[in-house]
Fold this protein.
Amino acid sequence: MTEHTSAYGTLDWQLLIRPSSDFVMATRTVVVRPGPMNPQATRGGTQYLQLWRTAGRTDTPPKHRLPGATRH
């Protein structure tokens, strides 16, 4: 997905998906055109990267409440 922002310029959001399980392994944002908030960024460089090693489901609630979360 390509995103145009006034602060960070034009960014290309990318997903890396494991084909055998449809697991999202990483999200990455590549700079297409820098903006005023990231003028040092190079075209084609990575602005943001997040990796996941595992994911799963659980029936156990989290130990700590999430901010703003309510139970019904």
Q: What stands out?
A: The beta strands are 2-5, 9-18, 23-33, 46-51. The chain has a mean pLDDT of 87. The longest strand covers residues 23-33. Residues 64 and 70 are 12 Å apart (CA to CA).
